[in-house]
Amino acid sequence: MKRTLLICLSALLALGAVAVTALAMESRSNDGTAPAETAIPLARVAVAHLAPFSTTTAVDVKVDGFPVLSDFEFGDSTPYVSPPFLVSGTHLIEIFPAGGTDPVLTRTVDLEARDYTAIAVGGANEWDLDLLLLEDDNTAPPGGKLKARIGHLAPFADTEAGTLADVRLQDGTPVLPMSVGYGTYTDSYTPLDAGEYDLKITAPGGSPTLIDPMPATFDEGDILSVFAVGDGDNQPLGVFVLPSDEEGFFLDLAASLQLAHLAPFAPDPGTAVDVSIDSTQVLTSFAFADSTGYLPLQAGVDHLIEIAPAGGGPVVYSTTANLTHLLHYTAIAVGGANEWDLDLLLLEDDNTAPPGGKLKARIGHLAPFADTEAGTLADVRLQDGTPVLPMSVGYGTYTDSYTPLDAGEYDLKITAPGGSPTLIDPMPATFDEGDILSVFAVGDGDNQPLGVFVLPSDEEGFFLDLAASLQLAHLAPFAPDPGTAVDVSIDSTQVLTNFAFADSTGYLP
Known about the structure:
Helix content: under 10%
Distance between the termini: 73 Å
Oligomer: single chain
Low-confidence stretches: 1-36
Strand order of the largest sheet: 10-8-15-16-17
Strand content: 35-45%
Number of strands: 39
């Protein structure tokens, strides 16, 4: 395509040069002497194809009947083009299907001697194919700044209300003061600090996220047009950046990966590892029970994940992962004990909010405390014996979906099949409305103690404290009753009041 474009432009420049020469010859005086040079006002036009009208979008473009672009596809763009015939005035622009003779769009535009960006838009979800002509401002931004024009050119619904979206930073801070619909753009450029930006395009109010590009760094002096593009069907939703007088590009799209180390292959500090993704070290001295929030990774490409002993040494485990845009994943190092191989468990997360008054939890058995699956079978129960899962589960199993649960206190225990004996007895724990949790039995009982690890969505995880049981009795005859009545506190919290001779309790955790 670029070779064809250059040939077309070269031909146009030659034609224009002939025209300008002819004009100059006509303007010579009768004696053949050249008059003073007269500047011919020319327009400069950058062109971009952002119309997602089909899965095959190649078009040819003519200006005033002359071919200027051939096989120009969705996402293609040009720097400024200023063939000599683009003088100020009226010009006819025609867009044809590639190789076709009947135009699908014809527009007449009035150009002045200034810079423009012409963008093919629409053509999906009942929006007409159209040509958007923007006037550019290429004055330099203030020192230390870049400047950006932001537009919504993504016809992903068939009404303006249906296309309303917010432009935000990753932490939710709005970049624009209001929701905007398809076809809108900022009239002026906004000065911004040079540096890294982690944007997202969301539904009005900030959720759900519609487009999540990878963080991108822009430099002092950059003059940018940044557009939401695509229809989500013919062409994927994305963010297209068009720098002034340069070809544009799509920002890479992001997926999110949370990491946890739950592989009890050695006593600590022997479990500490370094983790690299695509040959870049992202975690150092990452030990058993360490975890992260979500890390952004480019979607749609294979990522090499490697695990090596902390501080250097050969890679002990490697795998590849290909993540889907907008989806969230949790990668968990597991195994490595009792003849179970060291492995990386990749789970797809569901971060949709639970119903009102509820939390939701995914439950898994990641404790390789025996060398066979049958030997690791266990039950997840409440303290009164009520099963939380309908059957016994073995090492490496987890619930495919999240279970909605009432917010509040839970007193769990992990037992052998049938409810006895108890293998892990965590302290009661309170979870809140809206919590999204992964709850795992972990450890091997040798290198690492058995326990329950809770990994909240996008937060570092933690162990539930383990419980012992204490029964109390008052058998001290130090006075006649009621003189033996005492209050009993544990860790500065009063647990018994007026506890007199011969009083006693059941077990307290």
